[in-house]
Amino acid sequence: MAEQLPMPDAWVGEEATVTYLAAERTRNVNCTIREVNDRGVGVEEAEKTAFFPWTSIVRIDLGHHARRGSRTTRAIR
To answer: CB neighbours of 15 closer than 8 A, spacing ≥ 6?
Structure first.
């Protein structure tokens, strides 16, 4: 039996790495998830807030990417 994964709205308040499409390239942002709704995800990074529509999101991993290419994330697929 497959493990049932939590839905993104349960991740509000969690640290995450959002991989998104920008200018035809994927980019990552380490952030804290602040809002999830039917249009996308609102996040906070340092003192900035941002909104990513679902159409631009490639994936969301709980945890942050570590510097220098090392990953400390728990992948949710």
So the answer is: 30, 31, 32, 62, 63, 64
Could you list the residue range(s) of the whole structural domain that residue 27 is in? 8-75
CATH number for the domain harbouring residue 69? 2.30.30.520
As for how many domains the chain has, the answer is 1
* pLDDT tens digits along 30-56: 999 999 999 999 999 988 999 999 999
**How far apart (Å, rounded) are the C-alpha atoms in residues 68 and 63?**
15
The identity of residue 31, as a single letter, is C
Question: How does DSSP classify residue 38?
Answer: S
Token pair in block for residue 13: 């308040």
Task: Report pTM.
Answer: 0.74
CA-to-CA distance for 2 and 43, rounded, in angstroms?
29
